[in-house]
Amino acid sequence: MRHVILVGVFVAAVGLAVQAQAPRPVSRATAPVTFAKDVAPILYSNCISCHRPGEVAPMSLRSSDEVRPWAKSIKQKVQNRQMPPWFADPAHGTFKNDARLSDQQIDTIVKWVDAGAPRGNPADEPKPPVLTEGWQLGEPDYVITLPTVNVPAEGNDIFPTPNLTIDIPEDHWIRAVEIRPSNREVTHHSVLFMAGGVGGGMVGQSGFVDVLGVWAVGTPPTVFPEGVGRWIRKGQQLRTNLHYHPNGKAQTDTTRVGLYFGRGELKKEVASAVAGDVSFKIPAGAKNHEMRALYVIDQDINIVSYFPHMHFRGKDMTLTATLPGGRKQTLLSVPNYDFNWQLYYFPQDPVPLPRGTVIEAVSHYDNSADNPNNPDPTKDVTFGEQSTNEMMFGVFDFTPKDGVSPLPTTVDKRMDVLASTLPPDATYTTSVTILKPIPAVLHLPRSGDGMFYLGQGRFQINAIPIKNIVWSGDNFQFRMDARFGPNAAYTFDVKGSVTADGVRGEVTPVGVEKAPFSRSFEGKSARNLLQR
Predict the structure, then answer these.
(1) How far is the C-alpha of 249 from the C-alpha of 56, rounded, in Å?
(2) Spatial distance between the Cα atoms of 447 and 157, rounded to a whole number of angstroms
(3) For strand 314-322 and strand 358-365, is the pairing parallel, antiparallel, or unpaired?
(4) Residues 104-122 pLDDT 10s
(5) Which of 38, 63, 328, 430 is buried deepest, with most CB atoms within 10 A?
(6) What distance in Å separates the CA atoms of residue 36 and residue 46, rounded to the nearest whole number?
(7) Do residues 439 and 411 lie in contact, with contact meaning Cβ atoms separated by under 8 Å?
């Protein structure tokens, strides 16, 4: 069943214009396109689940009388493909939840509006479907109630992030998740993470960034395929990311989360991973600031969904897989990202990717005054949970190819896999000390550009380009820029030498007497990884 949430001045319609050709050769007549015969069936199947009283859409579209006042706006939004909301480039991938209208469907809507939006014969209208009120998936097995949020009448948007612990007596695997804000007028989105690690961060004990569920305009409840789901553990912590916008009247919201337990044994466990960056800074006024992030796959997997996430300045995002051997595959391209719609993209069939695949996310941001959604083009922007800050997350959900649950992962493990995919005679595993040693991979070809890969945190791997490498025998030198956090950017000179077994060198910060990283490094050749 297609789930389409339509907000704004929009209605989606479909229907084939019925051509009625008179037998006389000198005259042809075309049956008019009507609401009753051509438009109502699609409104009833795709639109009124949200365009009805009590749901998120601003107007109801259950009858000709309700639809007709919006006819001209409907035509405009549909012709511009602003509605239904869908942002994935159809040139890359086929998706189960593709909400786009066909050219023929759009033509039908245009003809209907141009003809004056006639109702037609009421006897031709189908009966409106009986829709579920309240929980769309039925009564949950377990309900989590988040703390009540008070939204003021005026002022800036608010971004509460309450954390809580689920009080269940035993572990369960869940087959579905439904998030229901009580007040959708002021709720922009609700994102829940299954937290783990020190301080209840967003990275779980297995090393994955596990997104439990998302509610936003355009995001239906999460329902996993038969026998597929996630584990919720006894004492599980949840970390939330909520967003509310005042609308002139003081209001409250109490969001509830419904968990639906699986029956029998779990056949495949879903996990989430992310190609993302949290150490960036977008300069004030930048119109097309580019960011890149990568995720190295350290086990054979099948991708089941994509979730690109940025904030108000996000323009576009592309996820590309480089498979072992070098073949590239565009997984998802969102050329016109819209923060108002938090959409998942579900491939028609799971996408198999082998161990050693590198997924790269490339995104662009407009932090200039030309961006009408920009909260403040005069300020540099860094990572933050508030929507006035920014994020760069290319999230994807996957299941393991073999076994039930994904193997636990670490940045160190993925860095080793990354090194094993690069030319062994020009690649070295090493580390850089920034308060503590962190894993690194140095790719130093004898000709052309290289790359310095730096593992930061529990999921992030930064790829830092190395240009203009100067060689003298086995000695090298180059200059490069690196960022270790939003306010920790450095330029430094690197000099060193390579041997058959590894690499060693010295780091000299340019114009900085003291820097939070070591001034020397030593690493092993990547050939050692291939011999394990």
Answers:
(1) 17
(2) 51
(3) antiparallel
(4) 888 888 888 999 999 999 9
(5) 38
(6) 16
(7) yes
